[in-house]
Structure formats: structure tokens, C-alpha cells
Amino acid sequence: MSGLISGKTILIDYQSFPAISYYKLLVAYNELKFEQYEHYQKGSYSNRYYLAGPHGTILLSVPLLHAGREKMVLKDLRICNRDKWQLIHWRTLTSAYHRSPWFEYYEDGLRPLYDNKFEYLVDWNMQAFDLVNKWLGLSWKISRTKEYFKSCNDPGMVDARNRITPKNTLDHGNFDFPHYHQVFEDRTGFLPGLSILDLLFCEGKKAGELLRKV
After folding, report:
1. Structure pTM?
2. Does 111 fall in a domain?
3. What separation, in Å, do the N-terminal and C-terminal C-alpha atoms of the chain show?
4. Are strands 48-53 and 56-61 parallel, antiparallel or unpaired?
5. Who's near 144: CB < 8 A, 6+ residues apart?
6. What angle do CA 59, 62, 68 make, to 5 degrees?
7. Whether pLDDT at 4 is above 60
8. How many domains does the chain have?
9. Res 2: pLDDT
10. Is residue 4 part of a domain?
11. Per residue in 196-206, pLDDT tens?
């Protein structure tokens, strides 16, 4: 992979099916460290991801158990499985993307994430991350934080925690990401800030190549 930032590790937060701009940021590095001791922030990508629908952006959110979850560290967040959120997410995905060029290609690999139960949000996020990495042909040396530091003073580490948020991607686009054709673009125009799933369903095996473009 060309263009790697040599000798640097990127410190990043967990996301559910990360935004395209999150991957665009990560591809410049070969080592990444996940922040798991920061407190959960409401409205972040930690437990939500955005898709394209016929009327605009669709928000899917993984429900969490804890009423006071804003005071909990990310690694301890438990998923609320009382409601059939996975079934709702899967039906939304299939409704929005069943006519996309590549949905059927990825469908069988994706389905177990919506059939199997997960207790912790971090486990759901990491399985989704690993699956997408395989499809994109990307890999990193991965580690996780062992404690929380408000500021990162390690000169060998780039602190990108909370850099990719719904506010900055939905409002300001995908970090100069190359244009690709979205399913409902003729109705809604191009929608920024979407999950990497949108890119995969629309571009398939070209997705990794597009992420590597400067």
C-alpha cells in the first residue's frame, strides 16, 4: 500500500460499520490503536451508522442497555437485545440496497452479524470491522488502549479520536473522497457521511481502490 505514514500509529475510536471518511483516514497508516477507555459520547458513530434511502439518509442505531451510558467507558457498553434491532437493521439494509450492484455478493457474509447475538457493543463493532477489512483487502497491526489519557503525548502516535463524527461528515462531506454513484442519487443527490457499507454495495471490489486514491 503506497502513501503510508511511516513509524506512526493512529489512535482511533470504535465505530459501527465505520463511515467512509473513517477508512479514508486509516488507509494512510499500518498500525492502529483502538480507544476503549473513553466515555461513550451520545450522538457519536460508536453505535450508529448511516445508509442511503429513497428519501435521504437513514440512521441505524444499536440500542444500549445502560440508562447512564454517557458515564460508561466504551468497552463496557452492553447491547440491549430486548427489541429485535438486528431484524430491523437487516430489513432496512435489504430494502435500501437489494437493487444495488453488489448487495447480493456480500449478503451471505453479512447476514451472520444480524443473526448472532452480541452482548457487548465493542464485539459487534470489531466483528463488523474485521469483515469489512477482509472485503476491502485492508489490514493493520491492531492494539487497544489499557487506560485513558485525555491528551496523547506519544510522538509516534496520531490522535484521531472523535475526528470522524456524524456532525462533521454529514455536514461537510467525505474528506474529499472520490465521487461514486449511489443507489438513490437521482432522487436525493449525493449523500455524504454514509457507512462503508454504502460504498461496498455500490462499488464492490473497487471500494478498496477508491479508498487508496489521494
Report:
1. 0.92
2. yes
3. 12
4. antiparallel
5. 33, 34, 36
6. 115
7. no
8. 1
9. 43
10. no
11. 999 999 999 99
